[in-house]
Design goal:
The complex is a heterodimer of chains A (503) and B (153).
Chain A lengths: L1 H14 L2 H19 L5 H8 L8 H26 L8 H12 L3 H35 L3 H17 L5 H14 L26 H19 L19 H23 L5 H15 L13 H16 L1 H7 L5 H12 L7 H5 L1 H32 L4 H20 L3 H18 L5 H23 L6 H4 L1 H18 L1 H10 L4
Chain B lengths: L5 H21 L14 H23 L13 H21 L1 H13 L7 H22 L13
Classes of the chains: A mainly alpha (503), B mainly alpha (153).
């Protein structure tokens, strides 16, 4: 306990330096901005900013990227409440009751409950990370190659069973990602693989090129291919910022439950903000007896719970990334990418070898959350004005920033051409109903998985049963298998499909 | 045989082709043995798994009924061609013409992909974005990007 506070103290001293404060602020503002703008998510934005990571120090760079991630959760709920357009997938459930509250002129109450609930959840989640990271890290040091391989299998499977869409296609996308990660020079034998004698390919495909091609350019093509949507905005109604005492009384149990739920679910592979907010809404609907306003018609519990849960979940999802080096979602995969760019191999050793980075990042989340509350409550009016920026100005800007970023990766145009290629592939994925996020996770983990698999087989002299003989590895693999079986059960399958048929 | 799900049919086919391609490509490298896995070991295994998964998806697409045939729908050729084309053009032009020409050109060409195109707006957007990029990337982050055409600078 004492150690936890001394660690947090170290983190606070790092996070409170002027430079890091500025980057946390910048990240939080930028995150809110892109959260408010539909059609631009944290994945695309972080991918867009990855090249700038080269020019920054590691700690401020990661603090900024983290700020974008949780800032986007805030911004996403603002638009969900005000205009029924969830800026982020995790804000989909917030829109159900939040928008109804706004229509009844209670937008101010909804927005401030969302902001305060998120802030509370963010504070708790920061403590949870600080408390659980060291023991998990110690456990991770006991891992051999076999355990790591099995953990990655569990992580990848976990990430897809909770995703929407067809399970078998998602698994196929993971494997395709793993295979794309095989285009490189084999670390053990030094043989270039799948390079077709193109020198650029012997270093592997740039992670940024895939991310920008699929999520940056691909999404633009996808958005432009759709007919322009009709939006109904009523910003005049945002009066009376503060919720009443009764609102507070009704909201706080939901905030507590949402925070607890998000902190637990966020740690699970594949968890994070989206799952947490869905689960919380279900729980609130079950547990709230005789709500003053029925759910679906503007119940404050339906805003407070999911909003707290998605913030707690998005922060708790840093735990597997920071302690085990396993990204549980696409944003964390990008964070791993950013750390690798800076020459830091994510994993249990980060905490001991870079304590400044580790604890500074955690402490900055708390500071960033505080900034978001201060920033968001008075600035809601401005964020809503941003929505009036037409997409025809926005998308060329995204294209420009991606293209410049791609050039600066290696100071040549190779990555620009690669990203253009992946834009076509990304659009094809969208058209064929294949979700690209699992591909990215597979691509990030591919080389690590291969290395651990081959090392485990070397150690066991070619005995594949090593993965089952070692108890820790066996239980991880069994957990992965159980996940697949559970999700394939007809009753759950139907429920899962209906849960994702939101939009 | 009739295709029951268009999306699954083509994605299944895509996975089969990609899996077979990677597995076939792996045969160029040393396979090793289970005790000493070579560079081909992992990609070959993955390629085979992917091809099998693709075949299952393909099979389901031909057998299992879906609502409305799960159509792929029209392809947005215009934005696809224009966005990809303008990005590739930028890749060729940037080293030759520098940011001051290549970047506004990128904004102008990319803007053509939208439903509404106004030349005036696109020009203003181009100038604003070029100035902003210069400030952010060159002045702010100190990145090395060719600014002026190579025949001037």
């Amino acid at each position: 306990m004492e150690e936890m506070f001394s660690n947090l103290g170290l983190g606070l001293s790092v996070a409170f330096s002027l430079q890091n404060l500025l980057y946390a602020f910048f990240g939080a503002v930028l995150g809110t901005l892109i959260g408010v703008l539909p059609g631009l998510g944290p994945v695309a934005t972080i991918a867009m900013l990855l090249p700038s990571v080269y020019a920054l120090d590691t700690t401020p760079a990661l603090i900024m990227l983290a700020g974008i991630y949780y800032g986007a959760q805030y911004g996403g709920s603002t638009t969900a409440i005000l205009i029924n357009v969830p800026g982020e997938a995790s804000a989909v459930v917030t829109a159900i009751d939040g928008y109804q509250m706004a229509r009844k002129g209670r937008a101010g109450a909804a927005l401030s409950v969302a902001a305060l609930g998120s802030f509370f959840a963010g504070c708790v989640a920061t403590l949870v990370i600080a408390a659980f990271a060291p023991p998990l890290t110690e456990l991770a040091f006991k891992f051999g190659p076999a355990e790591y391989f099995s953990l990655m299998v569990l992580g990848l499977i976990g990430a897809v069973v909770l995703a929407s869409g067809s399970l078998i296609k998602a698994i196929a996308m993971i494997i395709l990602g793993l295979l794309l990660g095989q285009i490189n020079t084999d670390v053990i034998s030094g043989v270039p693989r799948y390079s077709f004698d193109i020198p650029e390919l012997t270093d592997g495909i740039g992670f940024v090129a895939i991310a920008m091609g699929v999520f940056g350019f691909g999404e633009i093509i996808m958005n432009l291919g759709r007919p322009a949507e009709q939006r109904e905005v009523f910003t005049k109604g945002v009066k009376g910022l503060w919720p009443t005492m009764q609102d507070f009384r009704e909201a706080w149990p939901s905030v507590l439950r949402g925070t607890a739920l998000g902190s637990i679910l966020g740690v699970l592979p594949g968890g994070g903000a989206l799952l947490s907010s869905f689960a919380s809404y279900t729980v609130e609907k079950k547990l709230t007896k005789n709500p003053r306003v029925p759910f679906g018609q503007g119940a404050i519990q339906g805003v407070a719970g999911p909003e707290s849960a998605n913030n707690a979940g998005s922060q708790a999802s840093f735990i597997p990334m920071l302690t085990l080096g396993i990204p549980p979602n696409a944003v964390m995969a990008l964070m791993v990418g950013a750390m690798t760019i800076k020459g830091i191999q994510p994993g249990p050793q980060v905490m001991t070898s870079n304590p400044d980075l580790f604890w500074g990042l955690i402490a900055s989340m708390w500071i960033g959350n505080a900034m978001l509350v201060i920033l968001n409550l008075p600035l809601i009016g401005i964020w809503v004005k941003l929505l009036t920026v037409p997409y025809r100005f926005l998308f060329p800007a995204i294209v420009v920033f991606c293209a410049i970023g791609l050039y600066t990766l290696n100071n040549n145009s190779w990555d620009i051409f690669m990203a253009a290629g992946f834009a076509i592939i990304g659009y094809a994925f969208f058209k064929l109903g294949c979700e690209p996020a699992p591909l990215l996770l597979g691509f990030i983990l591919g080389p690590m998985m291969e290395e651990n698999l081959r090392r485990a087989l070397l150690l066991s002299r070619g005995d594949w049963m090593t993965f089952m003989y070692r108890p820790l590895s066996a239980s991880l693999l069994l957990a992965a298998l159980a996940l697949v079986v559970i999700v394939s059960l007809p009753a759950i399958k139907a429920k899962r499909e209906s849960a994702f048929k939101e939009d | 045989m009739k295709v029951k799900s268009e999306k699954d049919f083509w994605s299944g086919l895509m996975f089969v082709v990609a899996g077979t391609g990677f597995a076939w490509g792996a045969t160029n490298y040393s396979f090793g043995s289970a005790a000493r896995p070579g560079p081909a070991y992992f990609p070959f295994g993955l390629g085979v798994i992917l091809a099998v998964l693709g075949a299952i998806i393909l099979f389901k697409a031909l057998v299992v009924e879906t609502e409305g045939g799960d159509r792929i729908g029209g392809i947005a050729w215009k934005p696809l061609g224009i966005i990809v084309g303008s990005v590739v053009l930028f890749g060729f032009m940037l080293p030759l013409l520098g940011m001051v020409i290549a970047l506004p050109l990128l904004v102008l060409t990319a803007a053509l992909a939208g439903d509404e195109f106004h030349i005036g707006e696109a020009l203003i957007n181009g100038v604003v974005l070029t100035v902003a990029s210069y400030g952010m990337f060159i002045k702010g982050l100190g990145l090395i990007i060719p600014v002026w055409p190579s025949f001037i600078g």
